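Write out this protein's structure.
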Amino acid sequence: MQMIVMTNLKQKTLSAAAKRALAEAQARRDAAKKAPRELELHGRKGLEATRFGDWEKNGIVSDF
């Protein structure tokens, strides 16, 4: 088995627009982490049913 080691990796330089886009994306991620989530009042207990593709309520079961 051969192992190839790359010792001379070139780093890509980013344009100003790419750097600005990365900074904006990081700012959006940080803001999303800080934003409080709304609590569901009188909602169903347990796992989120729609996440798993099934929904049951009052004896009615449907697949999305």
